[in-house]
Amino acid sequence: MKITAQKGTRDILPGEIYKWQKAGRTFADVCHMYGYEEIRIPTFEDTNLFQRGVGDTTDVVQKEMYTFEDKGGRSITLRPEGTAGVVRSYIENGMASLPMPVRLFYDITAFRYEKMQKGRYREFHQFGLESFGSEGPEIDAEIISVVNVFFKRMGLNKISLHINSIGCPECRKAYNELLKEHFRPHLDTLCEDCRNRFERNPMRIIDCKVDAEKDIIKNAPRQIDHLCDPCREHFELLKKRLDNMSIPYVVDPNIVRGLDYYTRTVFEFVSENVGTQGTICGGGRYDGLVESLGGAPTPGIGFAMGVERFLLEAEAQGVDLGSPNKVKIFFVSMSDSARDKISKLCYELRLAGIGCEQDLMGRAFRAQMKYAGKSGIPYMAVIGDDELASGEIKVKCMEDGNETTVKIEDLAAFLLEK
Ligand code: ATP
Ligand code: MG
Question: Could you tell me if the CB of 284 is within 6 A of ligand 1?
Answer without folding.
Answer: no
